[in-house]
UniProtKB/TrEMBL annotation:
It is found in: Secreted. This is Cellular repressor of E1A-stimulated genes. It holds the Pfam family CREG_beta-barrel. It comes from Papilio xuthus. GO terms for cellular component: cytoplasm; endomembrane system; extracellular space. Residues 29-49 are annotated as: Disordered.
Length: 232
């Protein structure tokens, strides 16, 4: 009896140690990833705040997720603004377009709202890159650039070159999407941008020309280099 109890305690201790070690290993990997991204953006950093179009494209391309605000269709708050988090890309890691693309299901709050009213605002923040943290700036500090795109959302037609490009870009940046439940009728959506507002320094919001924003040839490869380093 004593022997059995001793074995059981040893096994529990061993299991507990292995579980702790595994958890700690995962935490260390996460810490290293955050540290890598923080260090990278310390070295590279965003463009000068006076370069409005370049800054806007930099922030959009370097963010993995966005807050998207819609007009709610939920009965209890119908007509209220409602916000949700969505994974985002503006093209492949090596080919930024500035156009925000999303992978959505009609079962989600956001898609339901958009089916009734296509107007939305998308917000991304430089804080996502950890650059603001490295500078000891609060996320609300005006130097921690936040970009707000407003416009109308629309589905990207399946089978088109744009659909193929956008879906591949989404799956490249967010590989977990390939394993999303297949019965959720996923679709690719994008925004037809009507206005771009940005806070990137003191003095209030600035407005970026949509035409200039989309026409800008953004060639930054920081996202591509970052993900390449993660998979070395």
């Amino acid at each position: 009896m004593k022997w059995s109890l001793t074995v059981a305690i040893c096994l529990l201790s061993l299991y507990g140690s292995e579980a702790w070690a595994t958890q700690r290993h995962l935490e260390e990997d996460q810490e290293n990833e955050i540290s890598s991204r923080r260090t990278h953006h310390k070295k590279a950093g965003p463009p000068d705040h006076n370069k409005l179009v370049e800054m806007a494209r930099y922030v959009m391309h370097n963010c993995d997720w966005a807050s998207i605000a819609t007009i709610s269709t939920q009965p209890a708050i119908s007509g209220f603004p409602f916000t949700n988090v969505k994974s985002i890309v503006d093209g492949s890691m090596a080919n930024s377009t500035g156009m925000p693309y999303f992978y959505m299901s009609p079962l989600d709050f956001t898609a339901r709202d958009l089916a009734k009213n296509t107007r939305a605002t998308v917000l991304v923040s430089l804080e996502e890159t950890r650059y603001c943290e490295s500078q000891k700036w609060d996320p609300e500090d005006p130097r921690c650039t936040r970009l707000m795109l407003s416009g109308k959302m629309k589905k990207v037609k399946e089978g088109t070159p744009e659909y193929t490009f956008a879906k591949a870009a989404l799956f490249e940046r967010h590989p977990a999407m390939a394993h999303f439940p297949p019965d959720h009728n996923w679709f690719v959506a994008k925004m037809k941008i009507a206005q771009i507002a940005m806070v990137d320094w003191f003095g209030g919001a600035k407005y970026v020309s949509v035409k200039d924003y989309l026409a800008y040839n953004y060639t930054g490869e920081e996202v591509l280099h970052y993900y390449n380093r993660l998979h070395l």
